[in-house]
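USER: For my understanding, would you kindly supply a protein sequence with its structure tokens?

ASSISTANT:
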Amino acid sequence: MSSEKNLNYKRIASELQQFVTVLKQQLPYSAYAKLLEETNNFNQADKLYLYLMRISKEYNLNVSRNFPRLDDFFTYIDLSRKVNPVELVGEEKRLVNEINFKLAQNQGQRDAAFLLCYFNYFEEYFANKISAEDYGYFVANLPKFKGLWVKYAENDRLAALDPYFSLLNEFYKVNIERNGSFVKNMLGAGAAGQTKPQDAYLDDLSRTVESLKDAEEVKVVVTGGFHTEGLKKIFNEKGISYIIVTPNVTQDTKLSDLVYLKLAKEQSKIAFQAFALLALANQPDNLKAKKK
């Protein structure tokens, strides 16, 4: 986010035009033709900048020296692609909990830190908002939570929730089992993938997108976030390449979710800036002359 403040979009657009001219002169015709084809004649900004970054490295065009402003923008895009807001929010929550626990100076404070942490999972469990990963933590630590409740609470209200535990546990159990049903419906009973297992979310994204052209079959699955981890595990076990597409936040959020919202908006802004920059760079020369 801080690198975005130093971007000069007029200079970037100008250097982008110059860079394309250099590409025409130095790239083999086949490579330049492929660039035009893959980016719909430079009209798909989301693909264009990824290809330009890759080509600059492959053909050693030294963008950092010859096109410093464009290089800044490439760096900006690359940094953004490496941030997964969903994982970042999860890590932030775990870090805060760990800090609270590590700073505790006695058993009473450690118990309080655990209860503070666990109660967040407890609330998400009953509100049907808990993730599959957090559900595993919730189940594993429920006996400890109940024991500390008895130790510190002056009432037995927790027991009143027992009937709901059995209902919700059955609900979450069925949801986990649905992962296998999803895969069975997608691939058929006993089907297995043919590619090397990989987590394609970030570093392998471009490679997986590239492989789609030669894929015999591509499946698109729409599921709730609870199923993501379970499906990832099954896909990796079966050697199936995959890409996870996570939607932006569309409503108000609280606490650490604000981090997700801020990053999602930032990444959306980058995409908008990329298209705007491309449009500016492709303006006819006579329009630019008039502006001057």
